[in-house]
Write a structure and sequence with these properties.
Blueprint (H helix, E strand, L loop, with lengths): L2 E5 L2 E4 L4 E8 L7 E7 L6 E6 L6 E3 L7 E6 L4 E6 L8 E8 L9 E4 L3 E6 L1
Length: 122
């Protein structure tokens, strides 16, 4: 059973940056693609970014392209989301997920963390 723990969220002004981290344990990290999703109040969980097992394939949702960067360190069992030029509409709880293949679809992810709150003030 894979456990995922996110960290790095917080309150930041518009235009600022945050780096989210997701620590994985309980499985062989390099066998899983990883993704970041977010959920704002009253909305469904939505895809943000995904990275394949060794980083060869990366996907982003259009609204974060050029601002967010997903990366992973298989030696440390970590996945990261560097978020720059943050906007108020980026405010949400951010979740990392583990999947067999890199996917933009929530239902493809088998494992989830508990989430970390990101709040961007205007």
């Amino acid at each position: 059973q894979v456990q995922l723990v996110e960290s790095g969220g917080g309150l930041v002004q518009a235009g600022g940056s945050l780096r989210l981290s997701c620590a994985a344990s309980g499985g062989t990290f390099s066998t899983y693609a990883m993704g970041w999703f977010r959920q704002a109040p009253g909305k469904e969980r939505e895809f943000v970014a995904a990275i394949s097992r060794y980083g060869a394939t990366i996907y982003y949702t259009d609204s974060v392209k050029g601002r967010f960067t997903i990366s992973r360190d298989n030696a440390k069992n970590m996945v990261y989301l560097q978020m720059n030029t943050l906007k108020p509409e980026d405010t949400a709880v951010y979740y990392c997920g583990g999947s067999i293949l890199a996917s933009t679809t929530t239902s493809q992810y088998r494992y989830w963390g508990q989430g970390t709150q990101v709040t961007v003030s205007s």
